[in-house]
Amino acid sequence: MSRLVLVLAALLLLALALPLPAREPLLLIHGGAGTLRAADMTAAARAEYEAALDEALVAGWQVLAAGGSALDAVTAAIVPLEDSPLFNAGRGAVFTAEGRNELDASIMDGASRAAGAVGGVRWVRNPVLLARRVMEDSPHVFLAGDGAVEFAIDQGLELKPASWFRTEQRWEQLQRSLLTGALPTAADQGRFGTVGAVALDAAGGLAAATSTGGTTAKRWGRLGDVPVIGAGTWADEGCAVSATGDGEYFIRAAAAHAICTRIALAGQSPDEAAAGVLAEIRALGGLGGVIVLDRAGRASLSFSTEGMYRGRADAAGREVAIFGGEGP
Ligand code: ASP
Question: Residue 95, Cα to own-chain centre: how many angstroms?
Answer without folding.
Answer: 20
